[in-house]
Amino acid sequence: MNDHLRQATRLEAISGRYDPWLLGAALALAALGVVMVASSSIALESDPFHYLKRHVVFLGMGIVMAWTAMRIELKQVEKYNQLLLLACFVLLALVFVPGLGVVVNGARRWINLGVSRFQVVEAVKVLYIVWLASYLVRFRDEVNATWPAMLKPVYAVGVLVLLLLLQPDFGSSSLLLAVTVGMLVLGGAQIKRMILPILLLLPGMIALVIIEPYRVRRFTSFLNPWADQQGSGYQLSNALMAIGRGEWFGVGLGSSVQKLNYLPEVHTDFIFSVIAEELGFVGVCLVIGLYALLVGRALWLGYRCVEMRRHFAGYIAFGVALWIGMQTFVSIGVNLGILPTKGLTLPLISSGGSSVMMTCAAIGLLLRVSYELTRAEKQVALYRGDVPANRDDAPELAQPSPAPRSTSRLKPRIEPTFERIL
Fold it and tell me: How many CB atoms lie within 10 A of CB 328?
C-alpha cells in the first residue's frame, strides 16, 4: 500500500449516504398521510380542503426541519445536552403562563404562536431523547453498575411527567416513561434494576386512572364499548364499525361513511379506522409494514452505530425508534379496541401540525445518523485498505474514530456482538 494512503484524513472530509430504506418508508407514510387527511377531513369544515391545506403547510415546515437536522453534525448537537433538558422543562412550563397557554377541551397542552397553536410535548419528545442519548454516552458504565447514575434520568423524566399530568396528558406521560425505560435498557442498565422503579411507579399510574372519572370511563368503554354505544363507547364502537366495513380490500378511497360526522377526531386520533374502512385489510397491512420497516431500520442503525462505537448516534436511533414504534402501536391499538383511548396521533399520517413537524425533525435526525454511520464505515474501510484509493469518496486513508468520552472510573463494558454470541 502506498505511503501517502496512510495519511490520516478528517472524518468530515468523507462523504456519507442517507439510508434509502429509511427515507423511502418515511416519504411513503407522509404521502399516505396527505391522501388520508384529505379523505378523512372532507366533511369536517365548510371548506373541504381546510385540514388538507393546513396539513400540507405543516408537513412542508417539517421537511425543512428534517433537512436542517440532516445537515447538522451530531457532535455539535451533543455539546448542548444540558440546554436540551432545560428546554424540556421550560416548554412544559410555558403552557401555564397566562395569555400564552391555550386550553382546548379542558386540557392545557398548547401555546399560542399567533398564527397557530403548538403542542409543546411534541418538541419535548425529540429534545428529551437527544438529552438522554448524551447522558447514556457520558455515564454509560455507571448506568450499568450503580443505582444513582441509573436513577438520574428517572428523576428527570419524573419531573417532566408531573408537568404533563398537570396539563393533563396521560398518554404522553406514559410514552415518555416507556421510552426512558427502553433507552436505559438498551444503554446498558440491568433489567433487574429497572424492575424496582417500575413497581414503585405502577401504583401511582393506576391511582391517576382511578381518581379521574373521565379516565375510568375510557377504561370501561374500552372493555365493552357496546354497553354505552351512544355515550362513553361512542368513539370506539364507531371506529370498530369502520374497520369492520373495510373487509379485505376496503370500500374504496373517499367512500368512508364513518368519516361523515359519525366518528370524532377522524382526521387525527382515529384516522387509522378510516384507512381500514377505505383500504381494507390489505391497506392496513401496507401501513403496518411501512412502520415496521421504519422502526426496524432505525433499530438496525442504532445497533450498527453501537458496534462502530458511535454511541451517541446509536442511542438517538434507539430512542426515536422506540418513540415512533410505541406511539404507532398505541394509536393502532386504540383504533382496534385493544388499548384504552390515549389521544396519541399516528406518526406522519394523522393531521396535527406539532406532531407532523417534530416527527419529521426526528426522521431528519435518523437520516443524519445513517449518514454519519456510512461515513464512519468508509473511514474504517479505508484504514483497513478495503476501499481502493482511487475512489472519489475515499481520497485518503483515515484513522478509526476514537472511542466516546466517558466519565466512568469503572472498567469499560465489552459491547455485545453477534459474532461473540454465535
Answer: 25
* Cβ proximity of 63 and 360 under 8 Å: yes
Centroid of chain to Cα 218: 25
The distance from CA 264 to its chain's CA centroid, rounded to whole angstroms, is 25
3-state secondary structure (DSSP) of residue 205 = helix
Whose grid coordinates read 436511533?
317
As to burial, measured by CB atoms within 10 angstroms (0-12 exposed, 13-18 middle, 19+ buried), residue 69 is buried
Q: Which amino acid is at 261?
A: N
Domains identified in the chain, total number: 1
Distances (CA, A) of 137 to 76, 97, 404: 15, 35, 7
Phi, psi for residue 404 in degrees, rounded to 5: -65, 150
Torsion of CA 75, 78, 83, 84, to 10 degrees: 110
- Amino acid in the structure at residue 365: L
Say how many CA atoms lie within 13 Å of 2 toward its Cβ: 10
Residues of the chain below pLDDT 70: 1-13, 208-210, 212-222, 385-422
Residue with cell 396521533: 345
Residue 85 structural domain: 3-421
Q: Which cell numbers in the block locate residue 84?
A: 436540551
Cell reading at 235: 368513539
Amino acid at 129: I
Burial bucket for residue 285 (CB in 10 Å: 0-12, 13-18, 19+): exposed
pTM: predicted TM-score of the whole model, two decimal places: 0.86
DSSP conformation class of 109: E
Closest CA to 244 of 228, 230, 263, 222: 263
CA distance 172 to 178: 10
Q: 385 and 1 in contact (C-beta within 8 Å)?
A: yes
Q: What is the DSSP secondary-structure string of 49-62?
A: THHHHHHHHHHHHH
DSSP-derived secondary structure for 64-105: HHHHHHHHS-HHHHHTTHHHHHHHHHHHHHHTTSTTTEEEET
C-alpha cell at 49: 380542503
Strand partners, 102: 110
